[in-house]
Amino acid sequence: MFIIVFWIALAGILGAIGIVVASTIKTARTPRWGQVFTENLRRKEIAVTAEGTTYRAFLYTSTDFDDSPEMPGVILLPDRGEKYPAFEHWAACYALQGLPTLAVELVAKGVPDQQLVESVLSAFPAFKNTLVENAKVDGSRIGVVGFGAAALAGTYAGAKDGDVKAICCAGMPRVDMDRAGGARGKIFLAHCKDDEHAPLADFTSNKEALGIDEKGYLLLDLGGHVFLSQEMIVAAFFSIVMNKAMKPRYKQFTPAGVVMP
Amino acid sequence: MSKKSEQQEAQQSGARPVPITPEELRKLDKDLGIKRPSGINWESEFLKKFLLQLLIILGVPPVIAWIPAWIQDGTGSSIGWELAGQGWFPSLILMVAWIGLDVSLVKWIMAKMAAFSRFPVPTRSDQVSYEAVDIPIGGGNVLPGMIIKGPNTPAKNAPVVIVCHGMGGRKEDFYPLGIPMSFLGFALLFYDSRGHGQARFGNKWDTAYIIKDFSKVVDFVEARAREKGDFDMDQIVAWGASMGGGIVLNEAYLDSRVKFIIALCTWADFMLTATRPLKSFMEKVIKAGYEFMGINLNPTKLQNRMVSPIYNSFNRMKGFFDHPVWADVNNDYRVMLAHCKDDMVVFYKNFELNRDFLKMPKENYIVFDTGNHAFGGNETAMVGKMMLWLFMRGY
To answer: What is the model's pTM?
Structure first.
């Protein structure tokens, strides 16, 4: 009779262990980055078709800027394989600054880097049109933020497009200077020394070839190709350089009150 | 010369090493001989009750599991409590299973607490410079500080951000902030509050004094601006998170020398957050953790007034005798707040109180639905908003 109590107690304890372990695993496996929930941020999914390929894109805008004039916009090209919502935090950073941001999911499984670059490059005008048509964006002041191989595409596209005023590249492999020459003066780099995909030599080569001075790049010791732990620093660095390059008109808070420059 | 005296000499000469990883920090603390009293707040009824409950939950069931076996042994007759012919075997299995449950609970707590420490890789860059300084606060005591400058920090008259860490934290916690802010043209001054980090005096629970020390840090900036000219005395930004937010919303707010104030996830009324009914087990774990540090989370009304900005500082400035007097403060221009609705440490009502007391326009704050006390998953978005707030003030 008492042995029944034993089996019930044991089943209860094992069940509790199962629940706790499942919860622990769930907590530990929670992706580092996900959706950003704040009422200041608005997101809209858009399908962008270019050259026969349909891209899944997300347009981010800030509710704080609904009444503002046209602002510069940002095209965000996450690293290959980074699926929604892993890149949303980057987009939120710029969108909350009043810069409507179109983030494009570039899954491209099994596609070589070079092919990915070419397809993104040919789709870039479509991304730009989508951004301008779906948000209050000044089409002559576009910023590009790219990661890894996608940064190469952003650089080549920005180099030949006068509307692109800032190109921010994180963990970018070595560029082809025949295609990137036009990016001089508006390109900014962020890199980690321990990047295993785009080695430090690529960064050094890019920096020198593109004539980037110390104020135009951010070189961190650690973080790898994905900028682990350094995301906030890179996002802030790109915010600063884009603000200088794209000159968005923000209302100014002064001791005497709020003024519009 | 011993290693310790070498360290002390290096410290006096201003060539203090710049520890960044937890291992480096531990080593430096050890080399400097820094020890802290345990300071467990045994006066706390909550802590005693919590520990007793924990002890009962963890320890009593394994003992209960042996009762049937003892009854069998004592009476000499079988009550059916046996497996494989052994009366002790079911009890042993239950005890081991319960210990397994205890271990899995501890692992679960550790996994939950990891959400507060989302940056496993240290942040370093050769592009910024570090200068160790000692900030005198009187009585021969100094707060260890670190000045960070970057490529865009002007050599003369740089605007300064004074960074205040949280309760139980240390100045190194926010070094990463120094890198982008220096690209915006700031110099940053990080310092260890008394009882924290490498400060050699005080205790972690000296909250009211920790808050008051801030004005001495501003004195230091003022003196340095006069002597070296590298800081702009008219452009001081006070930045703080959690207790650091408490520091800046109390002491920095009252100080007319401080131009801007950025306070993240901080309290409005310390007693309100410290003595609230706790909703979840994790909230109890966190509160117990603070009380293990010795923090008094059941302050008197007078203590509470000294550290709660809604009573102590809002819409006041320091008067002739340095005591707060009512003043017309331009909060729209001066203050930024940020908070997460699910903050388990400083619960959300505090933010609402701060926002309402300061009558803040929406441009001056951001609220995230999730992220807890560390803005987990929202750090980049939060820093984006902070940059915008600074851009809107001419930076």
So the answer is: 0.92
